[in-house]
Amino acid sequence: MSITLSRSAPVDRTERHRLSVVGGLAALSLDAMASVAYGPEAIVIVLAVAGGAGLGFTVPVTLAIALLLGVLTLSYRQVIAAFPDGGGAYGVSRAYLGRRASLVAAASLIVDYVLNVAVSVAAGVAALTSAFPELLPYTIWLCLAVLALVTAVNLRGIAESARVFIAPTVVYVGAILIVVVAGLIRAEPAAAIAAPAQAQHLQTVGILLLLKAFANGCAALTGVEAIANAVPSFRKPRARRAQRAEIALGALLAVMLLGIAALIEKFSIHPVDGVTVLSQVTTAALGDGLGFYVVQFSTVLLLALAANTSFGGLPVLAQLLAKHNNLPHVFALRAERQVFRYGVGFLTITSAILLIVSDGDMNTLVPLFAIGVFVGFTLSQFGMVRHWRKHRPDGWAGKAALNGFGALLTASAAIVVTATKFGEGGWLIVVTLPLLVLIMEWVNRSYDRIGHRLELGRTPTPPRPSRSVVVVPVHTVSRLTRDALAAALSLGDRVEAVHVTHPDEESSTRDFVEAWEKWHPEVRLVQLCDERRRLGEPLVEHLTSVRDQHVFVLIAEVEPERWWQRVLQNQRGAVLARALRRRSGAVICRMRFRLGDH
Amino acid sequence: MSITLSRSAPVDRTERHRLSVVGGLAALSLDAMASVAYGPEAIVIVLAVAGGAGLGFTVPVTLAIALLLGVLTLSYRQVIAAFPDGGGAYGVSRAYLGRRASLVAAASLIVDYVLNVAVSVAAGVAALTSAFPELLPYTIWLCLAVLALVTAVNLRGIAESARVFIAPTVVYVGAILIVVVAGLIRAEPAAAIAAPAQAQHLQTVGILLLLKAFANGCAALTGVEAIANAVPSFRKPRARRAQRAEIALGALLAVMLLGIAALIEKFSIHPVDGVTVLSQVTTAALGDGLGFYVVQFSTVLLLALAANTSFGGLPVLAQLLAKHNNLPHVFALRAERQVFRYGVGFLTITSAILLIVSDGDMNTLVPLFAIGVFVGFTLSQFGMVRHWRKHRPDGWAGKAALNGFGALLTASAAIVVTATKFGEGGWLIVVTLPLLVLIMEWVNRSYDRIGHRLELGRTPTPPRPSRSVVVVPVHTVSRLTRDALAAALSLGDRVEAVHVTHPDEESSTRDFVEAWEKWHPEVRLVQLCDERRRLGEPLVEHLTSVRDQHVFVLIAEVEPERWWQRVLQNQRGAVLARALRRRSGAVICRMRFRLGDH
């Protein structure tokens, strides 16, 4: 029949809640930025096994990582253009590698978002506790407090949280760049740094060692995909803004990584227990005065805030997965403030579990982190190769080669990391990824079955009216009962009032019947006597005898004027509705009699 | 119109859940029985201030208390006959002393039921921790564990709990009687008992001291009213069984109290820190072997179980108060197992608070206990005097004199206890009683006002049908939508389908409209476009424009086959219903599409 279209007045609150380029960089890239604090150290730790000769390869290895970073950045720039609805590795795999591969990518992304929260929080707190050792006994509580804080900020809406994070990001990036510049200018370390320990059983520099250093250092690349996954969170023009943010991220990250690697070689820095490589670099470049503390403190803050990247990304990914029937639909449900409450909640709970299980120890969590990242990277690179081969724009062969090369690098990194870290928790990821894929396939099949039952996608037969009865439970003769019966009579031709009595309430039953007969409404009254003082069951049993196609039970309740008057409600309606819902097929209609309105 | 009466098959489960004489004694009188453990000690503590001369008055004071007990027992026997619906002090005051007095009585009973739980649990745990001092640091946790246990038993239904308590009661009463008999036969203490401390600053025995001893000892009388309050919990013939239980309680209690008092004088027992008077009596009568431990352990158990008396009494009283509109109606709501869940919950929470605040210390709580008891006793005695004067049966003058004498005794006891214990917590009761009365009066007035609005007690105008519209929110074209529209069409003449869209979902909106037009149901479709992605509010706003008297919103939802499939539900129905309930006057009809049925 007729279709009426009504449009509410346009409100740009939606756009106001979205991200600018700088805001997106702050909200979604903190993870990648913060990895400067542990990436170079991860390389140095491996190379130090081969002593000074090994450490001499810091810059070449970092250069390889920076090259990979460049490849990834350019690749994700293309991904953003090709998939403006977000999705990153998931979206690319879904379009070019098939459903199963896309679920693997989704699973790896989910695992990484969760691990990123746990790792960032743990690393931030670890940096804090190494600066202030007296806080060490409270590590896990500090971790959970930081997590609670980030969750609270994110439940208020992502744009607000982006604004919160811009200043710390600017301070952190500025501080790292000053360290790099000051260090490169300076001829000698500004303050004494620890001397290398006496070398014993030095390994020689081989290809495996370099690969391991490369793989370990790739921890610095986690998070570069976050922007591509969250394109819909940007302001219009969404794709353009997201692309600019992605390029800015790649450039900044490369400069910081290479600069720190150069300083490591220049000042012959080597891993020392209890002092991070970044803090040694800072000491060498700026001394141990105020500048040192500024860098340290902004690092602590940024690592803590890096957890926020996941809160920007995972709920959006989960919504997309829910839209595709791969996750429960509640993940697509937005609360009032444009927030995906269920996604945020899932992230908080799972990362809290990881933090508690690992006792807030970063080193237990980091190895797990890289595996999922590389799986996602590899899938999206391979997907992009397919993309180029399918669409064949100008220069597609070169682009495809670049992506193929990236895929090869990340795939080998994935294999190396999984093999070397399997016993140290890598098995958990190897178990979790297929499990998540199985869960998503179960969810998908269940929705398929439900959709089949609901005949989704087919045109159903037209709706036809049929015989119906409206049953109204009554227990007093009052205005509430009158209004309920009036509503019921307005609905259907057949209305039935039902009164449940108990044998030890004979006098009140007599009073009721007397009042009813005196009132004499034109409605049939059914009296049900229950020996067991039950409320809902007698009605449920009575309804089984009703033969009509549609049975409506109209429950009238008093709605108090003020919230504190709710204590006065008798809960009969709720008890009745619960029993009917569980044990009958009736449509339950609840009518609220507002005391204030009358 | 016609009235149909349907009666479900009689089930005697209700009677099976009720109490026999012995069961009632066990379930409702443990409080009174258990007070043997602290009543005599309360007398001795006061008299010991006057040294040996004071302690010589133990038997006379106990005799006075036993006489009062006799008066109370006979009085409550009459109360049971006069008030077979239960209520005790509350019922009597309500009938003969007016509403305000009855609320004071009810408040005092509520306070006592709560205090009885706290005192019994604390005293039981105190007895346990003095036997096993290593448990002392866990006092409060032991208290809460016992409370949780008793609550759990009571949530299963009172008859079951009565059966649980019969054996411990028999063992305890038997053990006390054996102590009394053995002690009276024996010429010398069976084992050494502590010698009296050197007397200093002895007071002389005066009337005030004796009154104080009497008042303190009256703690032994707490609980004798519990049976009268819970007559409806007995099996038929309820009043006869309750009367027999009351008399049995009075007789047993008197014998135990007098026997122990006689032994206290015989063996010159005096209060000693850390050793209860009852355990000294037991040592003197049975020695310090197995018998001693049996008595001690059954005392511990019984004190803990005495808390159960309140769980038998308070929920029944609360139901009665709710029926009379003095408490929220939920207190009259029985759960499946014939249990008043809200009354049980109230009792558990308030007594847990008392235990936590007092740190599980019995001595902080006991003084508060007696005040409320005596207020209730006094009111019910005075009420009975009025009862006799009104009905004037044979020998009414003697009965009225007995009740009047009892009232005088309990009233003076109330005044003495309040005066002597005001600073030690008595003020709390002096504040709480009027506060409870005020709350109950507020509840009563609120229900009066609600009843007035609902025109309770007046015959309302007959219900008349008026114009109505059934609004069906739709978001797919499917069998669910078809069934919802068919149900709506069966109901009313005017049916309206409403589809809420968001501007960034243009393609899915287009698909929906296409499918709808292809389907072409004979129903008007209203499209609401909301820029802010809200679910419920656009519909609420739309409904404000509907001019019909009755607006029904029919929400169709998929009900999963199995409970774990609930994770797949999208919660749209719940979100919609909440928004409509809060912000519109529409009748909310929720229709469940059961996947299993189709």
UniProtKB/TrEMBL annotation, chains A, B:
InterPro entries cross-referenced by the UniProt entry: AA/rel_permease1, APC_K+_Transporter
GO cellular component: membrane
UniProt-annotated location(s): Membrane
TM helices/strands, residue ranges: 44-72, 103-129, 135-153, 165-185, 205-224, 245-264, 293-318, 339-358, 364-388, 400-419, 425-443
Membrane topology, as annotated: Multi-pass membrane protein
Record's protein name: Amino acid permease
GO molecular function (one): transmembrane transporter activity
Pfam hit, one: AA_permease_2
Keyword Nucleotide-binding: no
Superkingdom of origin organism: Bacteria
Keywords noted in UniProt: Membrane, Transmembrane, Transmembrane helix
